[in-house]
Amino acid sequence: MPSSGQGPRVLYWFRTDLRLHDSPALAKALSLSPSALFPIFNWDPNYIYGHRVGINRFRFLLESLQDLSNEIKKLNGDSQLLLTRGAPQTRIRELCEKWQITHVAFEEDHNAYARHRDAAVVESLKAANIEVISQEGRHLYPIKEVLKNTKGQPPTSMSQLQKAVASLGDVAQPAETPTSLPSPCPPGSDKADIKKLFDLISDLSSYKEEVGTPDVDLNAAELGGQRKSGPDGEVTSYDTVAAGEKSKYKEEKSPFAVPTLASLGMEEPEVKLAEPIRGGTTEALRRLKKLTEDPAYLSTFAKPQTSPSTDPDAPSTTLLSPYIKFGCLGIRHYWHTVKETKKKHKGAKTDVPEGMEGQLLFRDMYAVCEAAVGDAFHGVRGNKISHYMDWYLPTVYDKDGKQVEPRPRGDDVSEERLRTFKEGQTGFPWIDALMRQLRMTGWIHHLGRHSVAAYLTRAQCWISWERGAEIFHEFLIDTDDASNDGNWMWLSASAFFSQYFRVYGLTTFPAKYDKHGYIVRKYCPELKDFPDKYIYAPHTAPKEVQEKAKCIIGKDYPFPVLDEKEEKKHCLDRCKAAYDSKLFGNSKEVLEGKAEGMLRKKHGVPDPKNFNYKENAANKIRARTGRRRRLLFPTPSTP
DNA sequence: AACCAGTTGGTGCG
DNA sequence: CGCACCAACTGGTT
């Protein structure tokens, strides 16, 4: 029990809610009138080692943490965000014991890993008689209440979601923003003392004893990571990220301080954006304020009408998704700000689903679906809403149903298509520009995501949406498990959407929005001197045009890796066969591993093992020129 | 043309 | 008349 006889000693655990405003969990914690408040963010080795985190997202996270710490300091000069590290299942409880915490508070996070993590943490805290305050706050509506209204069924359309939330009333008003915060006081003291808090935990066991030696080191990036090696050549991000305890390479000023990319040995990516997407709640609110100055924009916003041929320097959308992902922007605050701003507009207004509120409701829809389907939402196997399609390069399971990692290599053709997709070297400028933009900036427009997702899955490559979701998860700043996996299911016509014959043309679709090819010229600069006529299909340009543009297709830019029309035809046949089979991720045949053979036999599409990749035109040219294209924008795959 | 869920409106039956 | 059934139609954020 606490030594001081005053109010509760609260540890507030920040995770994906890096803000002080519109935070129901923080408000509830503060309503207890705590005598001490310890705002922590904990580096989870699972995040550092187990997840693929692109450098743009890692940078965004560091900036968001620094900004949050500054905001805390503004309310209490003796406080700051306290960064700790360790497996949360044991570390949170250890901190509680050392700091004599009575209550732990956090905002609920519904994604699969977070659910399991939090369940374990709560159990360890309950066993130690520590009270847990957890509140929903990441979504417009309480997910559990929505789920009750659907009787546990996933709402797979906007109308179903709207039906399910109809009885829940209006979106709650944002929780009040605190105007002061209690100090983090060491046990037995009524004064903040960061150094003393540090001393109390600096002898805690090392992460290696807690989680074992990680077998994945993200710094050994396969994609040309720019990691500087440490003094002994063995430094990992986890060592350098260390805060709140002794670290070999610690350079931070204060024991719990937020590290910088440089202190982690990571170099800034080669981003040429005029205005990079900077993390932090301050930046989120600044961007939101700018939006409120343009009621017409928010009022007439129609997602399908916004151009995908845009980047963070010239966005056609709000660019707020990264801030929502990390909780820098409170979702109810955003919702009501949009509502209020729209009142100022006199003319016609867009509504759900294409209007601004609709965009946010889709996020809730995916979250409810994820909660209804459970862990299986993140793949095909066992997923009751995902059609079974006999994709190439699917996630592989052993006979006990355990995922085989790393994924065994698939057929050469599909692996090559996946590689060129990830690197932005497919020979289709629209796809390549988007994929390079993704890696350079951590963001692409929603319709651009549609284009690349359909290309990789149901329209051309017939590669599992699971592979695409992994790539997005690695490089997007705004990645959110429920929305990311949900949208990949949507675009691959696995769930939510079934009109698989609606296929985006790789040249016609972008040309509808942008004849000049803004993002192609920016992200594939080798193509920048092509005339508009050929910008989305440079391989069709006559030799003289290629020479004049100083870009020979097959030499300076790849020839398309596949035939768009031919593959589309195959894919439509495969879609039809898959739908006719009525197999879903949770069908017996799928769980028993028999589904693939069944479908291959049925639709008669050649097994990729029999594809003769050498006949591919791009490869012919590659064989002739005798060299592989070098990556133009290698983005390090460091955390 | 090709999908699918939900709604509508008609028919037949008790 | 009420009800079950079914065919036709509609809408689906892009």
Automatic annotation (TrEMBL):
Photolyase/cryptochrome alpha/beta domain: residues covered: 8-140
Coiled coil: 58-85
The keyword Ubl conjugation appears for this protein: no
Organism listed in the record: Pseudomicrostroma glucosiphilum
Lineage, top ranks: Eukaryota, Fungi, Dikarya, Basidiomycota, Ustilaginomycotina
Gene Ontology molecular function: deoxyribodipyrimidine photo-lyase activity; DNA binding; FAD binding
PANTHER family on file: CRYPTOCHROME, CRYPTOCHROME CIRCADIAN CLOCK 5 ISOFORM X1
Biased composition annotated in UniProt, kind: Polar residues: 150-162
GO biological process: one example: circadian regulation of gene expression
Cofactor, how bound (note): Binds 1 FAD per subunit.
Signal peptide from the UniProt entry: none
Alphabetic keyword roster: Coiled coil, FAD, Flavoprotein, Lyase
Assigned protein family: Belongs to the DNA photolyase class-1 family.
Pfam families referenced in this protein's UniProt entry, alphabetically: DNA_photolyase (PF00875), FAD_binding_7 (PF03441)
Residues binding FAD: 317-321, 359-366, 478-480
Cofactor: FAD
A cellular component annotation (GO) from this entry: cytoplasm
Protein name: Cryptochrome/photolyase FAD-binding domain-containing protein
InterPro entries, per the entry: Crypto/Photolyase_FAD-like_sf, Crypto/Photolyase_N_sf, Cryptochr/Photolyase_FAD-bd, Cryptochrome/DNA_photolyase_1, DNA_photolyase_N, Rossmann-like_a/b/a_fold
Region of interest (Disordered), ranges: 149-189
